[in-house]
Each structure stands twice: as structure tokens, then as C-alpha cells.
Amino acid sequence: MDDDGSQSGRRFSVLISGASIAGPTLAYWLSRYGFNVTVVERSEAVRGGGYAIDVRGTAVDVVDQMGIYPQLQAAHIGSREITFLNPDGDVAGRIRPEELTGSEEGRDIELPRGNLTELLFALTQRESIQYLFNDSIESIKDDGNGVDVTFKNSEPHRFDVVIGADGLHSNTRRLIFGPEEPFSRYLGYCFNGFTMPNFLGLSHESIAFATPGRFAVLSASGDTDTLHAFLTFASEAPPITASQDEKSQRRLTAEMFAGVGWEVPRLVDALQKADDFYYDVVSQIHLEQWSKGRVGLVGDSAFAPSFLSGQGSSIALVGAYILAGELAINQDPTRAFASYEKLMRPFAEANQALAGSGASFLLPRTEDELNARNRALAGRQAQGSGTMPGDDSRTVHSSLRLPDYSAALVPEIDGSD
Ligand SMILES: Cc1cc2nc3c(=O)[nH]c(=O)nc-3n(C[C@H](O)[C@H](O)[C@H](O)COP(=O)(O)OP(=O)(O)OC[C@H]3O[C@@H](n4cnc5c(N)ncnc54)[C@H](O)[C@@H]3O)c2cc1C
Q1: DSSP state of 182
Q2: Which is the closest atom of ligand 1 to the Cα of 46?
Q3: Ligand 1 pocket check for 18: Cβ under 6 Å
């Protein structure tokens, strides 16, 4: 980066923390608007692989405008079926994934998370964006005219604006608003994600096993030797032991699933051995304001909706597009943050609300909820009736129309080199 944090002919300098979905999307658009962009990422590289995520509704317009929609379509998994199992392992019903998620067939995309992040990252390589990998912000000092930042590894630097795109447990949010607890809304579940061999020969499909309060999901992202496995359990409050270390998290999950039927013992065993295991609570982020002074937040760090909404990636893409556009058309960052939030908040909150309808269907906590799920599945299969969570969500996915910021684009410099 330049000594003064700016380049001649460029708008002001922006530091983005996080290089996953929101970060590179924001970086791409800011660069297209002529900003001088630096991205700091804790990991050594942009992470590939991962579970399936979705790009739906308004977010499809974002990736289309970025010119990567055809590549996303090529990576579309095209899951065909979800099979729901009862506590004894018997089949309760089968539905198409769209009936659960509200995805629009032929338009919305389901792809491995790493494919999306790699595509977004590759796109930003064509722009003059500086990445600081294996690094993290240590301190932020906003004096009203600029933000002084110190890093774990890199030299301190002054930026005009800092944006946190560093996820559910955002470091930037902690630095400007304090610890996570007041902003985190726990949704009553804890989950473990890991991969294991495709011992069932699944292809383009998922199996969702449920006994009240305990759930196992296996997903095959296409024709693959590997399954993405999730073991989720209901808990009134987040278990304290599980926040400690991996060993206690693995042990706690084994205890929670002791005596549960179907193939669950095999999954628990695989979880004990998995080297890509991660554990977290299912939670959302709700903040009264997404910015403070010259520091703003986007994606999960500002409005995480949880995987129960299925919309985290999509609203991260849309939020990044709008934030970049508002920074481009407003001279003053605080004004830009205010209009970004005004446009984005209703959309983010409507998508966060989708988590409620998905939960009792996918993760029934009681016999009554399990029976209601089974009745809906039976009704759907017998007469095509029976309400599915996806029925209402499709309109929410597309409930925001993207503003047009094209007047703020700077002419593209020859990108051939
Ligand atoms: C199990 C699971 C299933 C999901 N399923 C779906 C789904 O079906 N559909 C869907 O749309 N969404 C789904 N999601 C949600 C989706 O993954 C997130 O909403 C989305 O990734 C948010 O993007 P983001 O860029 O805001 O944050 P993240 O993807 O969380 O990225 C944050 C980035 O910041 C980096 N970072 C963290 N701390 C620091 C630091 N201190 N300094 C620098 N960098 C840092 C991280 O390494 C990471 O690269 C799921 C999530 C989970 C966990």
C-alpha cells in the first residue's frame, strides 16, 4: 500500500477485514469505483472446499453484474432430493431441496462454499487490491478524519475507512462495539460439521435424520467420495464446556448422541477422528447499528442469519454490493453507512426471520414438532398439499431490488496483464 494510503486519481483508502464472501465482493466493487483497497485475512489463503451454500434471489443479480454467474452455474451442485428419516431410521418422506429452501430452479445456485470464495478471490486478482494473509487487525483508532490500524504482523497504517467482513465472531465488531454476547441471538442449537467417506453411496442428495432434539444430516455435493456431515443438538443454553476446546466439544457431542439410532454411532465415530471438524452454536447477529464513525460491518459480522435461514452467503453478497455503491456515491463515509443500512436492513432482517420457519421442520425439538413435520411430508407426497418452509421464503430472497451504481464506475484499466 502507499505511504499515505491513497493512490493518485483514486477515491479514499479502505481496509477490509476478512476474505471469504462479503470481503472480496466488497473489495471488487470498491476497486471498480476507484477506491484503494487492502484486505487483511487471518488464514494463510482463501479457503477452498466446504459445505454447500446458496446464491439466491437478489444475490444472483450481484454475481451476474460481477460477470461470474456462468462460472457459478457450472459449479451448481443440482441436489435432487432430501430424504427425511424418523428416529428408527424409517423414511418419513422425500422432497426436492427447493421445497425446503425456496430456491428457484434454473436460476438460483447451490455450490461448495470454497468454489464461490475462490471465484470471488480470482476476480479481485484482476483489480489492484492488496491482500495481507496470515494477519489480523490488533487495534483500531478512529479520530474522525481517518482510522489508525495496527496489525498482528504488518506495519501500522492509516486508512480512510475500515470494514469488518470477518464473519459471525467478527474481530472488527469486537474492536468497535465490544464483546459478542449482547449482539448474539442464540437459536437453541449447537452443531458440528465435518467430512467423512461416502459410506452410503449418496449422490446429489441429502439425508436428514431426526429424533426430538438430536439431528444428523449427510450431504453429497454431487458425485463425490466425501460426505458433509452435521450433528446438531438442541440445548436451552449454549453448553459451557463446549466453548472450551475441541476435545471437550467432541466429547460433549458424543455424550449428546449416545444411544441415538440409525447410522448416528458411525457419524459420532467419524467426528472423533475428523481433522476438519468444527463446532459452533447456531446464532444470529443483531446490532442496533452496523457502523461507528469510519468503521462499518457487512455480511455475517453485521447480520448473520444462521444456516437455518440458508441465506447467509446471499445477503453477504448483496450487503457488500450496496455498501460499496453507497461509499462510492457519498463523499462522507458516515452518510454512506447510514444509507447502506437504510437500504439493506429490511432485507437482512426479513432473511434472518426465515431461520424460524426452517428450524422446527429440519430440527424438530419435540414429538409434536416431529409429527407435524411428518404430516407435512405425507401431505405433500400424497396430494401435493402440506406447507413446506420454502413456500414463503422465495419472495423474501428477492425482496430487494439492487440500486444502480454504474455511474460511479471508473473506466476499467486494461486487465490483460
Ligand atoms: C454449517 C453451515 C452451513 C451453512 N449453510 C449455508 C447455506 O446453505 N446457504 C447459505 O447461503 N449460507 C450458509 N451458511 C452461512 C454462510 O457460510 C455465511 O453466512 C457466509 O459465509 C458469510 O460470509 P462472510 O463473508 O460474511 O463471513 P465468513 O464466510 O464467515 O468469512 C469471514 C472471513 O473472515 C476471516 N476472519 C475471521 N477473523 C478474522 C480476523 N481476526 N482477521 C482477519 N480475517 C478474519 C475468516 O477467516 C473468513 O475468511 C452456512 C454456514 C454454516 C456454518
Answers
A1: G
A2: 49
A3: yes
Q: Which residue's CA lies nearest to atom 42 of ligand 1? A: 136
Distance (Å) from CA 316 to ligand 1 centroid? 9
Q: How far is the CA of 234 from the centre of ligand 1 (A)?
A: 22
Q: How far apart are CA 124 and CA 18, in angstroms?
A: 13
**Neighbouring residues of 84: CB distance < 8 A, sequence distance ≥ 6:** 91, 92, 93, 94, 95, 208, 210, 373, 374, 377
Give nearest CA residue, ligand 1 atom 19. Answer: 312
Assess whether the C-beta atom of 219 lies below 6 angstroms from ligand 1. Answer: no
What residue segments make up the domains of the chain, in order of their start? 13-75+112-183+284-362
CB 298 within 8 A of CB 164: yes
Q: Does any ligand 1 atom lie closer than 6 A to the CB of residue 284?
A: no
* CATH 3.30.70.260 for domain 13-75+112-183+284-362: no
Does ligand 1 have an atom closer than 6 angstroms to the CB of 43? yes
Whether residue 180 contacts residue 167, with contact meaning beta carbons closer than 8 Å, is answered with: no
Q: What pLDDT, in 10s, does the model give residues 335-375? A: 999 999 999 999 999 999 999 877 888 899 999 999 999 99
Give residue-wise pLDDT tens across range 194-235: 999 999 999 999 999 999 999 999 999 888 899 999 999 999
